[in-house]
Fold this protein.
Amino acid sequence: MSAKNKKILSIIGLLVMGVVFIFVGSKDLVHSRQLAAGGKIATAKVLDGEDDVSGRLRMHTYYLQVRFQPENGGAVSPRVEVSKEVYQSVPIGSTVTVHYLPEDPIVCQAGETVALRFGNLLWGLVSLLGAGYLMLFFQQPAGPKEAVEQLGESVKTLS
C-alpha cells in the first residue's frame, strides 16, 4: 500500500471516528446535564462489578451492575460506568446512590454526585482536528521513502 493510500485511509478513519465520538459524547453530555438538572435519586443494590482493562496503556474502566426501583415503573438493572473510587468503595451486595432520569431510568449514574461526562466529545474533536491536519498537509511527504517517490514522479514528468 502506498503512502498516499495510507494517508487517505487515515483521514477517512479519523473523520469516521470523530463523527462517532462526537455523536456518543454529545449524547453522554446531554444525559449527564439532564441528570444533574432534573434527575431523581434512588438507592440501588449492587449486583456485580467489572474492571475492564483495555489497550496497551492498560486503561481501566469500571462498571457496576445495579438494581433499583424508579418512582413509576418496575425495577431496572442497568450496567453503569463508575469512577474508580465508587467501584472500590462499594462491595457487591451493598447499596449505592443512583441518579436516574424519570422518563428513562436506564439513563443513570451511580455515586453521590452526578459527573459531567464529556470525554468522548473531546476525543471526537481531537479526531476531527487530526483529520484536518492530515488534509492540510496532505501533499507533504510523510517520510524519506515518500519523498523519493514524489521526486521520482517529478523526474518522470520532466523527462
In short: The chain has a mean pLDDT of 90. The chain has four helices and five strands.
